[in-house]
Amino acid sequence: MNGKRSRAYRLTLSERGLELYLSVHLRLCTLAQDLLPYGATLQAAIDLLEQRDCDEVAAEMLDNRLDIYSGKCEHFVGGSLAIGRSARAIRERLSQTGLMHAPQIGRIYIAGLGVLGASENRELISWVARLTRDRARS
What we know:
Blueprint (H helix, E strand, L loop, with lengths): L5 E8 L1 H18 L5 H14 L2 H9 L10 E8 H17 L7 H14 L2 H17 L1
Antiparallel strand pairs: 1-2
Helix pairs in contact: 1-2, 1-5, 2-4, 2-5
């Protein structure tokens, strides 16, 4: 029996949030020298956020500057089931440390996009290289 390997993730973004998503997607594609799926951008955002320590993630989540990226326009991005698992793991980790109580998953996605946008090219190139290796194995 074939299990589900992907799903659609709902992002509720403002116009500025969509601009952020598209700009970091373009940046990743440029660094990869490839047309990446939109889900790869969300995966990169969550992977990079998950690599940060809890204090840094909590600070990112509590940063009011993220509010400009949240909105009412729903966008759906197809991606790996790992995106949801990682986002829930981040939420659980934050809750267990007591730094914050169960943040909304959508806020985690937006915080990840903020981290992705602020990341240095070398960190993104390293992420793209891992993606390329993983694709070659499957």
